[in-house]
Amino acid sequence: MENSKKSIWTKVFIIGSGIAFLSSSLLGLTNMMSQSLDKPLPSENAAQSQNAQLQAEEKGFATVLKREPNNQTALRGLVEIRMQRGDIPGTKAALEQLVKLNPSNKQYQEFLAAINKQIAEPKKVGTLKPTEPKQPTQPSK
């Protein structure tokens, strides 16, 4: 009799433990799923936020240039921001000023030439974004 009582209590304990384990696991999974559904997906809001940040940075560089028209750091920042925003004419204007301040800087001259070429032939040149170097192809045997 005592043996069957132990057996019953053992079964009750095992079943109760199993139910507790399953319910806590399900509770954790539902919390995890609800949190992942609550998070906003990266979408237009992120793009709008980035554009607003770029506009604010551009305004900051422009403010510095009003006080110090030959500030090369602000000019370089303005070139970078305007390129990110796709403002080719604005990029060209800031870059021309950099070339005037640094006539011996070949990088500025080459970049200005590339912008002028893109303005002259926009469909042939494409974008001015840097590309990954191509890996040499192996000859087929």
Short description:
The protein has 141 residues and is mostly helical. It has helices spanning 2-38, 44-67, 72-85, 88-101, 106-120, 122-125.
Rough outline: rod-shaped
Low confidence ranges: 130-141
Q: List the secondary-structure elements in sequence, H or E.
A: HHHHHH
Distance between the termini: 84 Å
How would you classify the helix and strand content by structural class? mainly alpha
Strand content: under 5%
Q: Quick one: biggest sheet?
A: none
Discrete helix count: 6
Task: Report the count of strand segments.
Answer: 0
Radius of gyration: 32 Å
Provide mean pLDDT, rounded.
80
Describe the structure.
With 141 residues, this protein is mostly helical. It has 6 helices and no strands. Helix content is 77%, strand content 0%. The radius of gyration is 32 Å and the shape is rod-shaped. Mean pLDDT is 80; it is low at 130-141.
